[in-house]
Design brief:
By secondary structure, chain A is of the alpha/beta class. Chain A is built from seven helices and five strands, in the order αααβαββαβαβα. Chain A has a five-stranded parallel beta sheet with strand order 2-1-3-4-5, sandwiched between helices. Chain A is globular, with a radius of gyration of 17 Å. Chain B is of the alpha+beta class. Chain B has 16 helices and 16 strands. In chain B, the strands form five sheets. Chain B has a five-stranded mixed beta sheet with strand order 1-3-6-5-4. A four-stranded mixed beta sheet of chain B has the order 2-14-15-16. The chains are: A alpha/beta, B alpha+beta. At the A-B interface, helix 1, strand 1, helix 4 and helix 5 of A face helix 3, helix 4, helix 7 and helix 8 of B.
């Protein structure tokens, strides 16, 4: 273990420079996030991830945000275990009928002010699963959505751009 | 001896490839069940159609597969689960989707159907409404017992499912899973889909196994149409499959250690996983390599700098990974959590035909890449590690050994690949035909069965994840352990929700 730790010390940082916030996402947010919320939250957001029926592809890339290359916590963004601790719900999937109630209840358990970020093509409109008897077809059909991060799945850089746009705006810079 | 020699059947279906399919009556169906319960055959798949049910049977020793079909004239078929438990969830699913009734079944509770779809039996041709009843968990009774309900929304970044623990103090006396939350109706969406759309759906059955599913789907279509992908495409497919296996095994090894509060390993394997995904992105233009494999071959060749990116990846893994193995092996606090935790008995692994590291950590010597030796694995040298202990530690070690094998396989493929075509034309107008394929995903065997019509549209497609036969074993593995060890056991299985919920 000593060898691994020592090499980590001398290795230098793997963490990469932050991407610029997504301009389109910033514009989308400008109309949706109110000023009072910005003042209250500052530059820190707690994120609760909700899989509403995804294929798990989006989750894999959301996981990657915590690795040494992206290191999401340096931006004040952190994943929390309960919706009661969260400012942001990060929702994936075409919202299956079997998950609809769980998503609603998670949303209702999240204190105000809160934002919903729909992640991936399925969360936008059901994607390739749209039209199925088993899917509602898009997160906005169930809870109000503030920001879309597109991709199948979105890359960690795409996710980071979107979340930084949210953070900038919430922090009062947007 | 062929599997069907021991099973009386009415007739064989000529257009089914590459293994035989035969229609059986009651005697044949019962004979097949008896072969399963006696352990001579393994249940490889069990799925429905509006008026028939099919079982795929594996003879592991002879490396043979056969499908038997029972035509449900009165909307009924003799229950398999009553005699052979591994069939239970699949049988409940057949009833949920098609409304076919297993006669004599002990457990008729719905599985995927949570009574919110707006219609009963969505893939069947019965217009009978199904009464909504409250889901009844199996009882566990005793003076000191209490229940803990977890999910479907969990505390981590993880797929949704419900776990009902009954515990005596800290000790779990029963765990019951209730899944189906990610049911998207994939098999219904497949019906009538073009090959392009169907391949995309197959890719998204379980995102972590996108390559394995695309690979299986392509091979099932090629079997049905009796065509082959060009040699270079076959090598590229295996290259992607091994890259996917590497990335997932790194993720899992780290995540298991993280659940034992050993974050250092998680950080280190996280770097290796990211390196794999970036190399995949350079080589194939997508981090998870979605939509590259299609029926007939692959849509794009490896990028010009892909070969170098992959060789650089292999060099880094060879440099870093041995130290991480040493770290795992020499950290007593970590081993304290993984050794003898969450044991899957070898007889259960055999009975359930558990695939992947779950089966191979419990003595089941099956890997579709070797047992069924599909191309290009028939030309590649690799070992299939098998252990007997069946605990979390054994499942970690199987992954460690498989990482080493995948590294060797990728190196071989890069050396063996020669220039050439990457896609064969798909013939039009073949007529109705059926294909079956099994590929080895990182967590175990993926089976895909399909029937194509004359316009090359999918009439019916069934996709079976390894998780179907692994999830029930997790229920047995946690018994007698403490609730706090559940995340560790669960992660060491890393079963798919989406792949099993469909």
């Amino acid at each position: 273990m000593r060898k691994t730790l020592l090499e980590s010390l001398t290795h230098g940082s793997l963490t990469e420079p932050a991407p610029a916030p997504d301009e389109a996402a910033l514009a989308e947010l400008a109309s949706k996030v109110d000023r009072a919320a910005q003042a209250r939250l500052g530059r820190s957001l707690a994120i609760r991830q909700v899989d509403a029926g995804s294929c798990n592809g989006c989750e894999l890339e959301i996981h990657a945000l915590s690795n040494a290359f992206y290191d999401i916590e340096r931006f004040g963004l952190r994943f929390v275990a309960s919706p009661r601790h969260a400012d942001v719900l990060l929702v994936t999937g075409p919202v299956t009928h079997n998950m609809r109630q769980a998503l609603e209840r998670t949303y209702n358990a999240t204190p105000d002010p809160k934002w919903v970020v729909a992640v991936g093509g399925c969360a936008l409109d059901g994607g390739i699963f749209g039209g199925s008897y088993a899917c509602v077809g898009g997160v906005s059909e169930v809870v109000p959505v503030d920001l879309q991060i597109k991709g199948c799945p979105p890359t960690p850089t795409d996710l980071l751009k979107g979340l930084l746009a949210l953070l900038e705006h919430v922090g009062g810079k947007g | 001896m062929d599997i069907l020699d021991g099973i009386p059947h009415v007739h064989a279906v000529a257009s089914h490839r590459p293994w035989p399919r035969a229609v059986v009556a009651d005697a044949g169906w019962q004979a097949a069940i008896e072969q399963l319960t006696a352990g001579r055959l393994t249940l490889l798949g069990f799925w429905g159609e509006p008026s028939a049910v099919h079982m795929a049977l594996l003879d592991g020793a002879a490396a043979e597969i056969a499908v038997v079909t029972y035509e449900c004239a009165a909307g009924r078929f003799p229950s398999v689960a009553r005699q052979h438990l591994p069939a239970l969830r699949l049988e409940r699913t057949i009833h949920d989707l098609f409304g076919l009734t297993p006669t004599g079944a002990d457990d008729m509770r719905p599985w995927l159907d949570h009574h919110v779809w707006g219609k009963s039996f969505p893939l069947g041709n019965r217009n009978v409404p199904r009464g909504a009843v409250t889901y009844q968990f199996l009882p566990a009774e005793g003076e000191a017992l209490h229940q803990v309900a977890v999910g479907p929304v969990h505390a981590g970044i993880i797929e949704p499912g419900h776990f009902r623990f009954t515990a005596n103090g800290e000790h779990v006396v029963r765990l019951e899973q209730w899944l189906g939350y990610t049911h998207k109706g994939i098999e219904r969406l497949m019906q009538g889909a073009s090959l392009d759309v169907a391949a995309k759906l197959a890719n998204r059955t379980s995102g972590d196994s996108a390559v394995a599913y695309a690979f299986a789907f392509a091979r099932a279509v090629e079997a049905a149409l009796d065509i082959e992908a060009p040699p270079r495409a076959i090598f590229l497919r295996a290259l992607m499959a091994e890259l996917e296996r590497l990335a997932n095994h790194f993720g899992d090894i780290g995540a298991i250690c993280n659940d034992a509060s050993f974050a250092l390993m998680h950080a280190q394997t996280g770097i290796l996983r990211e390196r794999c995904l970036r190399a995949a992105n350079v080589a194939f233009g997508h981090r998870l390599m979605m939509d590259v494999i299609v029926p007939g071959g692959v849509v794009q060749d490896i990028a010009p700098d892909g070969d170098m990116a992959l060789r650089r990846l292999l060099a880094e893994i060879k440099r870093v990974f041995p130290r991480l193995i040493e770290l795992y092996d020499n950290t007593a606090s970590l081993q304290d959590r993984t050794v003898t935790t969450g044991i899957v008995k070898t007889e259960y692994a055999r009975q359930f035909g558990a695939g992947g590291y779950v089966g191979r950590a419990s003595g089941r010597n099956f890997d579709a890449r070797r047992t069924l030796a599909y191309a290009p694995y028939d030309r590649l040298a690799f070992e299939v590690p098998v252990l007997e202990a069946g605990d979390v530690n054994a499942r970690v070690w199987i992954r460690i050994r498989e990482v080493e094998q995948s590294v060797a396989l990728i190196a071989q493929i890069l050396d063996l690949m020669s220039p050439g075509e990457i896609r064969s034309a798909v013939p039009a107008g073949r007529g109705d035909c059926e294909g079956l394929a099994v590929t080895e995903a990182f967590r175990g065997d993926v089976l895909i069965w399909l029937r194509l019509d004359q316009e090359l549209r999918v009439q019916r497609c069934h996709l079976r994840d390894a998780s179907w036969f692994q999830w029930p074993l997790l229920e047995t593995a946690i018994e007698g352990n403490i609730i706090a060890d559940f995340p560790l056991c669960n992660k060491s299985f890393n079963c798919s929700y989406s792949g099993a919920d469909l």
